[in-house]
Design a protein that fits this description.
two-stranded antiparallel ribbon, 26 helices, disordered N terminus
Length: 625
């Protein structure tokens, strides 16, 4: 049995609260005191909170611009914070060099240099990760905590956009209180957390509760000071006149859930190291940190207790052990939710719930229809990211979907009740992800004239990782005609005739025109504004021969068969795994992952196993941003 791994971290700050200031306070003042304590840690925590693998210098977020992949589609919002001293912010990636012909060079230029692991920085839990971690830490059913309210943000897990403001912290307090109430709501639930009576709990009973939740909640070794801090919090906040007999136990749970050690993922490294490092400039992630990184990547939640115990004796940082652990996690039912989080982030699926539509043109549009669209896409995609031996790229070309009564009218069907599998004939204009009503709806915010542009941009960003930059602020952009008696192609004609416009729009409009036969809620409509026949004629510049196509299904087939699409999937997955944008430093890891994806017959689970066993996933390079 090997010696337990030690993480090279500085002493950690205690959860501090001024006992004299809160003893006997009413609930609102106690909440403010606790919140102030939490904010002091979350907003002002120092290098003690994270690995010393950072650059040791104070840093700000002003350089953390979205990169070519993984820039994030959601914002922390509501305020600005400075990353803790000694901890790097998510780096602004350098653009990967891409060949003009995407199929010839689908993953960019690796060059002659070795793999370059990225640096170390704090990564806040996303809202789904926070909820799932609280649920699993306290052994609550998977169906609970669905109504926990947190600060609204996008689906991205990119660390550069996951900041914390006072608005975030206030909602974290409320969420922790709600979760604690549910965790202690029944005798059976209380018994799972402590083998003693938590009503008016004694110190011995509270200590057992603390031991149960703090180690796994913090996902690292904990100090006696940290445990004592939680006990002090429970003592100081309990008022003898308070009718809630479980207040002390609840505050222990709240203290864990509001701690930065719970809210943030952090990189710790091995002292030693215990095994040779491929490059002396690198540091190995400790078993705890690698376990945490893998668990949130694959499961979308914190590691279970058995895995934490395993981390005490096994060197997860060995490639073979990382592979075994990844396969163990992928066999866990929770991985289904975890992998969906990547798919959701990559395809931006929840956006369909927020898209506005003109009620006069689309009277059918409502929240119920949007929810039905989202459910259909979730069930459809499950067949490609979760099924064993599935080819992930087949999501573009399959001939079926799952249609329920809510979405059936969009297809012109009469389905009733729950979703049923519907197979489309080869001559029907349905089949593949690009013909799902959710995709056809979420990609367009605006009118019909914008649809080819924004749909084309979505397809290039999502499946080719190759989209023209935004136009310069000084460029005067002509407004397309709003005359609905004129076809969309005519209204966008200047995009192909004006050289200034054509430089970018030839990459967008001809792709989006492939979906012109579908309206803004996904119905098939082969007639245009001039009653002209819409045939979906388009062109995909950048692939070999700049191929032309007719309609969505031919476009899907081109994307499905393209190495550029496969390479783009690899880039998006790697960005999600590292919770940051990727760039030139990652090119060699992307190239290796692309080869593994190809060898694994484009199975997403095999790609994940390859990525987590890579040197870049298991190491950091101190000082790299």
């Amino acid at each position: 049995m090997s010696t337990p791994l030690r993480a090279s971290v500085s002493p950690q700050p205690r959860l501090r609260i001024n006992c004299s200031a809160v003893s006997g306070l009413n609930r609102s003042r106690l909440r403010l005191a606790c919140l102030t304590s939490v904010l002091g840690l979350v907003l002002g925590c120092t290098s003690q909170v994270a690995s010393n693998g950072g650059n040791g210098k104070s840093s700000t977020n002003n350089a953390a611009k979205p990169g070519p992949i993984g820039g994030g589609n959601g914002s922390g919002g509501g305020g600005s914070t400075t990353p803790p001293t000694g901890v790097g912010s998510a780096p602004p990636p350098t653009q990967v060099v891409v060949n003009a012909m995407l199929d010839e060079n689908p993953v960019g230029t690796c060059g002659a240099g070795p793999i370059k692991p990225g640096g170390s920085y704090l990564r806040r839990l996303t809202n789904p990760e926070f909820v799932a971690s609280g649920r699993d830490l306290l052994n609550l059913p998977q169906t609970e905590l669905t109504n926990v309210r947190l600060f609204a943000e996008g689906t991205s897990n990119n660390a550069a956009g996951l900041r914390v403001s006072s608005a975030h912290a206030a909602l974290y307090y409320d969420a922790a209180e709600s979760i604690a109430n549910q965790a202690l709501s029944t005798p059976e639930r209380r018994a799972q957390l402590a083998p003693c009576e938590l009503s008016g709990a004694s110190d011995d009973c509270l200590k057992q509760l603390i031991e149960k939740v703090i180690w796994r909640g913090f996902r690292q070794n904990v100090t006696q000071e940290q445990k004592a801090g939680l006990l002090t919090l429970a003592h100081a906040a309990v008022n003898a006149a308070d009718p809630d007999p479980y207040k002390a136990a609840k505050l222990v749970i709240q203290g864990v859930l509001n701690s930065p050690f719970f809210l943030y993922k952090k990189d710790t490294t091995n002292d030693g190291p215990l095994m040779p490092v491929p490059n002396p400039a690198w540091k190995q992630l400790s078993s705890y940190s690698l376990l945490e990184r893998m668990s949130y990547f694959i499961l979308g939640t914190l590691p279970d207790e058995a895995m934490m115990q395993q981390a005490l004796t096994e060197q997860y940082d060995r490639s073979s052990n990382a592979v075994a652990l990844a396969r163990q996690m992928l066999a866990d039912p929770r991985a289904k939710e975890g992998l969906y989080r990547f798919v959701e982030d990559w395809l931006n699926l929840p956006k369909v719930l927020k898209v506005p539509r003109d009620k006069n043109r689309y009277p059918e549009w409502n929240e119920t229809l949007a929810q039905s669209m989202l459910r259909e896409s979730q069930r459809y995609l499950e067949d490609f990211y979760w099924a064993d031996n599935a080819n992930f790229t087949d999501l573009l070309t399959s001939s079926y979907s799952y249609v329920d009564s809510g979405i059936a009218p969009i297809y012109g069907l009469q389905a009733q009740g729950a979703a049923q599998k519907v197979t489309f004939a080869a001559n029907q204009p349905r089949g593949g992800f690009l013909t799902l009503p959710a995709l056809l709806t979420l990609t367009v915010v605006g009118g019909d004239v914008l649809a080819p542009i924004v749909r084309g941009k979505y397809i290039r960003d999502t499946f080719l990782c190759s989209s023209p930059p935004l136009p310069p602020a000084t460029l005067k952009i002509p407004t397309p005609s709003a005359d609905t008696n004129v076809s969309v192609r005519k209204r966008l004609a200047s995009h192909s005739t004006d050289p200034v416009c054509a430089a970018c729009h030839q990459q967008l409009d001809p792709v989006g025109f492939g979906l012109e036969q579908y309206d803004l809620i996904g119905r098939f409509n082969p007639k245009g504004f001039e009653q002209e026949n819409l045939i979906g004629k388009g062109r995909l510049y950048g692939l070999l021969g700049d191929p032309e196509f007719l309609g969505a299904k031919e476009l899907e087939q081109l994307l499905h068969d393209s190495n550029a699409t496969r390479g783009c999937i690899v880039k998006h997955l790697q960005s999600y795994a590292f919770a940051r944008g990727i760039g030139e430093i990652d090119a060699c890891t992307v190239a290796d992952s692309f080869k593994a994806f190809e060898a694994g017959k484009y199975n997403l689970k095999e790609l994940i196993v390859s990525l987590v066993s890579s040197d870049s996933f298991r190491h950091i390079t101190p000082g790299v941003q």
